[in-house]
């Protein structure tokens, strides 16, 4: 029985690794045409589906191709795709969401775990968990018709903008961070808190010097989970970010993110355009992996110290 249990556990872990590797390989193979055409310059190029003149070398290389218009009366051109704008939009909206949600989520978790009476804690805790279960498209509709006009009244600019998308995204990830952090704080042994109180510590000091250090790993886990959710969110951001391929001149300007670009353009994309979208998805996979890995190893390293 022990051997069967061990093999099942090993199989479960292996399935996760196989899925991760298969996603990486699929995205890489599907984006090979765009990678060979644009190289790593795709990351720094703000152009998306723009026609640019062909060089002499490119004219010799691409005599006939669907992506090039070679008419006698027109200057030969090619369609260029670049991922800078969606990448910037994804990173900025995620940063705004984390910056907005983190302090509020920590405050909610502290209140529910250590300050609120049990009956209030239970009711608010259920409300937080229900908030986490609301579909993202509902957040998008609420943000578009109610929240966006309020943000415009305060900061001006456009109703659909990077700021609006980031703040609504922060509202979406807030319940995940709050619920996981609260559960992590509740694992702190009572004897540690009682010992601190016996030594004359205040509630604030107990929370700061006992509960937070003990539950650091769980708090970091909640941030990483919220970070992954924010990087990949599509529907709510599609309602609110503006969906235009323009670098944001200010926080209240519209732009686009990688998931939104994929959702809006994948249906009609063909050839090099489809490969470029796969390249964007590949970049999102790499960015998510790098950002989450840095956050995980950096914070966990600090915890071990």
Describe this structure in words.
The protein has a single domain (83-302), classed as MetI-like (MetI-like fold, Orthogonal Bundle). The longest helix has 34 residues, at 271-304. The radius of gyration is 24 Å and the shape is globular. β2 and β3 (77-81) form a beta hairpin. It has 13 helices and 3 strands. The protein has a 3-stranded antiparallel sheet, with no helix packed on it. It has 305 residues and is mainly alpha-helical. α4 (84-115) crosses α12. Its main location: membrane. Belongs to the binding-protein-dependent transport system permease family. CysTW subfamily.
How are the SSEs placed, and which strands pair?
Blueprint: H1 2-30, H2 32-38, E1 48-53, H3 56-61, E2 68-69, E3 77-81, H4 84-115, H5 118-133, H6 136-155, H7 162-185, H8 190-198, H9 203-214, H10 216-232, H11 235-240, H12 258-265, H13 271-304
Keywords:
305 residues, mainly alpha, MetI-like fold, three-stranded antiparallel beta sheet, Phosphate_Transport_Permease, MetI-like_sf, phosphate transport
CATH class categorisation = Mainly Alpha
Residues in β-strands, percent: under 5%
Q: Kindly report the average pLDDT value.
A: 83
Q: What is the string of helix and strand elements?
A: HHEHEEHHHHHHHHHH
Rg measurement, Å: 24 Å
Outline of this structure?
By secondary structure, this protein is mainly alpha-helical. Helices cover 72% and strands 4% of the residues. Residues 64-73 have low confidence and may be disordered.
